[in-house]
UniProtKB/TrEMBL annotation:
Keywords: Nitrogen fixation. Belongs to the NifD/NifK/NifE/NifN family. It comes from Rubrivivax gelatinosus (strain NBRC 100245 / IL144). The keyword Lyase does not apply. This is Nitrogenase iron-molybdenum cofactor biosynthesis protein NifE. Residues 46-445 form the Nitrogenase/oxidoreductase component domain.
């Protein structure tokens, strides 16, 4: 790896906001809180994949992958990050380097690709992603991007994230570093208000941001920038003028919140949009933080009035489902913020949690799980498919909530399954989202197909029954 990339990785893990790091010495602190995977063993995605996931929801930007076509093909459009306008982000741009470029270098091809995008698509910015092959042959994408930016008069942002640098989560943070180095703070907003906030680590999966934004609008709070769901380049570039930051998924972009606090003095808190209680807590935290940064104090009263109106309506809609789902058991295989925020939401619907995975969760996430579930907290670090299958059968879970890769384990166990990760088609955020989530769980559990698949096939019926 290049010296600049090594330095950037070291900076990512120098995390002052982490409670664990604060107890370490200066030298140990810079080693970070987690041990990096060996290159080639980055289970769950590589660094490039993580950066693409984190940045591609910026909807009006052209995302150009410098590398073999498979790098772009394998990562294209695999998350339902919705846009309210531009669709440039869904177009796959790649330099598609070949053996000739490996021998002679791919910088000329990269420059030509940038020129073609600038002249034909004319986006407000182009993001260029470094992958393994051009990194190993020594292509200097930062120099190419700088020259192209001067030549074509638009920002060309280098994202130096070769897959061999580490796992997907490291790529999330390196993508965030690209925003901090080249985007955030480069544009001034046209209008600034005391109610401006940034939402960080929210990707607008299936339009979840759109379920929360009306609540913030009713509170009088303006989302200056969402980093990065349904994002716009100019909004993110002017995000340094917000009065407060909300951190949604700390595992992916905590470095954005902490660096913005260091550079521009913007305070942040970590919140969740999942579940009634957590949604209300988030509205209160936003109001509290804005008052601390100079907003009128009456926003706290407006937040309480909004919560008083929304909570009874949501609980009333959940009442019918609570009666049907009382005592039903859920196995939750996810990670990060959902490892605890979804637990809270499921408990509000009267569901019992058999276990929740914490493979991609921070220490703070695990503490929240312990606070929510108490002595019943069953946290799963890593679960092989065989163990997942055994747990489903032995724990007698009624449904498993996970990502698409785990669904076949549940189906083999003849258990209901529902997608809780990025491939899903339903939005679960806000007061409206919790009702949608519980309704989908109800549909899955009480689907009559499960009675049919669990019944023995005709050729498996007892011999006596066949004779009769």
């Amino acid at each position: 790896m290049s010296a600049s990339l090594n330095a950037r990785i070291a900076q990512v893990f120098d995390e002052p906001g982490c409670d664990v790091n604060q107890t370490k010495g200066e030298k140990a602190r810079k080693k970070g809180c987690t041990k990096q995977l060996t290159p080639g063993a980055a289970a769950g995605g590589c660094a490039f994949d993580g950066a693409k996931i984190a940045l591609q929801p910026i909807a009006d930007v052209a995302h150009l992958v410098h590398g073999p076509i498979a790098c772009e093909g394998n990562s294209w459009d695999n998350r339902h990050s919705a846009s309210s306008g531009p669709t440039i982000y869904r177009t796959g741009f790649t330099t598609d380097i070949d053996e000739f470029d490996v021998v002679y270098g791919g910088e000329k091809r990269l420059f030509k690709a940038i020129r073609e995008i600038a002249e034909t698509v004319r986006p407000p910015a182009i993001f260029v992603y470094q992958t393994c092959v051009p990194a190993m042959i020594g292509d200097d994408i930062e120099a190419v991007c700088k020259r192209a930016s001067e030549r074509f008069g638009l920002p060309v942002v280098p994202v130096d994230v070769p897959g061999f640098a580490g796992p997907k989560n490291l790529g999330n943070k390196l993508g965030a570093e690209a925003l901090l180095d080249h985007v955030i703070g480069t544009v001034e907003p046209e209008v600034s208000t005391p109610y401006d906030i940034n939402v960080i680590g929210e990707y607008n999966l299936s339009g979840e941001l759109w379920q929360v934004k009306p609540l913030l609008d009713a509170l009088g709070v303006r989302v200056l920038a969402c980093i990065t769901g349904d994002g716009r380049y100019r909004e993110i570039a002017s995000a340094h003028r917000a009065r407060a930051n909300m951190m949604v998924c700390s595992k992916s972009m905590i470095n954005v919140a902490t660096r913005m606090q260091q550079r521009w003095g913007i305070p942040y808190f970590e919140g969740s949009f999942y579940g009634i209680a957590d949604m209300s807590r988030t509205l209160r935290d936003i109001a509290r933080l804005l008052v601390q940064t100079g907003a009128p104090a009456d926003i706290v009263d407006r937040a309480e009035a909004l919560i008083a109106a929304e909570e009874p309506r949501a609980y009333e809609r959940l009442r019918a489902y609570r009666e049907r789902l009382a005592g039903k058991r859920v196995l939750l295989i996810t990670g990060g913020v959902k490892s605890w925020s979804v637990v809270s939401a499921l408990q509000e619907a009267g569901l019992e949690i058999v276990g929740t995975s914490v493979k991609k969760s921070t220490k703070e996430d695990k503490q929240r799980i312990q606070e929510i579930m108490g002595d019943d907290a069953h946290m799963i670090e890593d679960l092989a498919p065989r163990e997942m299958y055994r747990m489903l059968r032995e724990a007698r879970a009624d449904i498993m909530l996970s990502g698409g890769r785990s669904q076949f384990v549940a189906l083999k166990a003849r258990m209901p399954w529902m997608d809780i990760n990025q491939e899903r088609h339903h939005a679960f955020a806000g007061y409206e989202g919790i009702v949608t989530m519980v309704a989908e769980i109800d549909k899955a559990i009480f689907n009559p197909v499960w009675q049919q698949v669990r019944a023995p096939a005709p050729w498996e019926a007892p011999a006596v029954a066949l004779a009769a």
